[in-house]
Amino acid sequence: MPAETFTHGRSRLTYATHGEGRPIVLVHGLSGSSRWWRFNIPALEQQHRVYTLDLSGYGLSRGQRSLTVRAAAALIVAWLDHHDLHDVTLVGHSMGGQISLHVAAGAPGRVRNLVLVCASGLLRASAVRTALHLPRAALIGQKRFIGRIVLDSLRAGPWNLWRNAVDLLKDSVQDVLPGVQARTLIIWGERDVLVPLELGRLLHEALPGSQFEVIPRAGHVVMVDDPRRFNALLLAFLSSPGAPGGDVTG
């Protein structure tokens, strides 16, 4: 289905829709785009209606000024309201995971399941120091994906990347964690050097009842490094007891 545009105030969100069923919303991270989910959509769309977002300033929404983490979350909440989406599974990678935490806390009536993928919400480092890890992160990840990372970074532009990097490192999710009511799955790459595995464990501890899964040998872009394992974990979580349409008898 062709991409569509949602405008709220001066901000724009581009999204595409795949498949039918209960809604899954995929939110990319810093320097990313909706294309970062291309190895996951075919598995997910068989049972679900999958929405892939391009945040303001990225991917198909390029050419705009990027939004802060909290402004991006507010835009997604407005988009959810516009489409009156309920029982949503919100999946966020890296900065997208940080944004998704704010969305889940701000719209608990719409977000039923939250999936945090190497989420950056508890990361505390300088933007420069984090940037120094990028070459190593690229080498750890799938080499086939380096071209996409470079292309999407160029499309976003250095100012958008820098502005978001500084903002996400300033933003804390500590104040919103108590407001997260969604069933939560946390997925991390064992070899993530951008957002270390220990931060995933801390998120797991801070979100009572959450499920924590580590994918061996995967790096920061875990859904690309091992899509088969990632897809299996996500689909198993969605079919588990407590999920909409899941086996409530266990």
How many structural domains can be distinguished in the coordinates? 1
Per CATH, the architecture is: 3-Layer(aba) Sandwich
Output the structural class. alpha/beta
> Can you list the strand order of the major beta sheet?
1-2-4-3-5-6-7-8
Residue share in helix: 25-40%
**N-to-C order of helices and strands:** EEEHEHEHEHHHHEHEHH
CATH class descriptor name: Alpha Beta
* Uncertain residue ranges: 246-250
Ordered list of secondary-structure elements with their pairings:
Elements: E1 4-8, E2 11-18, E3 22-27, H1 41-44, E4 48-54, H2 69-83, E5 88-93, H3 95-106, E6 111-117, H4 127-132, H5 134-140, H6 146-156, H7 158-170, E7 183-189, H8 197-206, E8 211-215, H9 222-225, H10 227-238
Parallel strand pairs: 3-4, 3-5, 5-6, 6-7, 7-8
Antiparallel strand pairs: 1-2, 2-4
